[in-house]
From TrEMBL:
It comes from Mangrovactinospora gilvigrisea. The lineage of its organism: Bacteria, Bacillati, Actinomycetota, Actinomycetes, Kitasatosporales. It holds the Pfam family ThiS. PANTHER family: SULFUR CARRIER PROTEIN CYSO, SULFUR CARRIER PROTEIN SLR0821-RELATED. This is Molybdopterin synthase sulfur carrier subunit.
Amino acid sequence: MAIDVRIPTILRTYTDGAKAVEGSGGTLDELFTDLESRHPGIRARLVDGGSLRRFVNVYLNDEDVRFLDGIGTPVGDGDSVTILPAVAGGSA
């Protein structure tokens, strides 16, 4: 088994259009490093320094990782990670 990672439309250029990819690792940080090895450039879109980018939301099994351990959140086989860009704006 592996970790299922759901990719938003805006990042699918890094995954050759795939809506979901598989990865492995013990933490989100390790998972993103694993994804980078097969999908170059994706990690930089998710991580800034040692933390998640401000406008990227990541959910582990439907839980926001910002309320867990952020990029250090443990992950394992069978988990589902969803990456969503933050949406903002609108008219006044």
